[in-house]
Amino acid sequence: MKRTSRLSLYAATVLLALPSASAAAAGAGSGPFGVTVTAVASAHSARVGALFAAGRRDRLRGGHFCTASVVHSPHRDLIVTAAHCLGGGTAGELVFVPGYRDGEAPYGVWRVAKWFLPDGWAQGRDEDSDVAFAVVRDRGGEGVEDVVGGNRFVVGTAVGATAVTVTGYPNSREVPVSCSNKPRPHNRTQQRISCPGFGGGTSGSPWVDGEGQVVGVLGGHEDGGATADVSFSVVFGAEAAALYRESVGCDEPHGGSS
After folding, report:
1. 209 falls within a domain
2. Where is this region: Disordered (predicted)?
3. Cα-atom radius of gyration of the chain, to the nearest Å?
4. Residue 15: left (phi > 0), alpha (psi -120 to 50), or beta?
5. 8 A C-beta contact, residue 252 and residue 135
6. H helices then E strands: how many in the chain?
7. Residues with Cβ < 8 Å from 55, sequence gap 6 or more?
């Protein structure tokens, strides 16, 4: 079941046999649809990163367990991921590494200061509430968005209106993978996408449309899906919008280096 494989830090996973097709087109959300490739290093992929336990900050290789991405916020310090990636720990014990590749942190290691979970998830692990935000501390007066930029977080978009690009970090790889396709409704509150190879570690991967908007986060139904070939996301609505507003209004201090 993907419920276990999505999150496990140590589960044995098979190295994905990924096609060699160009990822450049996928980065624009314009196909080839349903083909998973290694994500090219770019300004856009730098906004996506891996989550690690804080104790792994000096030995990153092999330690990532979920994916997150930078979203625009007034304090320029906000990331979005799946709630099931954050719901079991303590604030301050995680770090975010944008653009992570092969054990290296090209844009620095950013300490998670505080996170925000929807009531539906905090009170009952409701799969329709599987989205979360986290504030990361600044480094030398710069926020993470100042360094890598951020995508807009939007709610209320029509499922499947446009193609999206999903980018994430499988546990079996030390570089991100990417795939573009059109989401489809699963039910009123969940959407799904067909992209192979999004198994353990890819929870929290952003679904970014051609306008640079995050319209989904890999998670939701069955913690993101029961197979690595079909993934799910909550359909963002009023609860996600309220959580975003709560997150950007956080009074948590942002100074100090981590």
Report:
1. yes
2. 176-206
3. 16
4. beta
5. yes
6. 6, 15
7. none
Q: Is residue 19 part of a domain?
A: no
Quote the CA–CA distance of 3 and 16 in Å, as a whole number. 19
For the chain, 258 residues long, give each residue's pLDDT as a single digit of tens. 343 334 433 232 222 333 333 333 334 445 589 999 999 999 999 999 999 999 999 999 999 999 999 999 999 999 999 999 997 554 458 999 999 999 999 999 999 999 999 999 999 999 999 999 999 999 999 999 999 999 999 999 999 999 999 999 999 999 999 999 999 999 999 999 999 999 999 999 999 999 999 999 999 999 999 999 999 999 999 999 999 999 998 544 332 233
| Domains contained in the chain, number | 1
For residue 58, with 0-12 CB atoms within 10 Å meaning exposed, 13-18 middle and 19 or more buried, which class applies? exposed
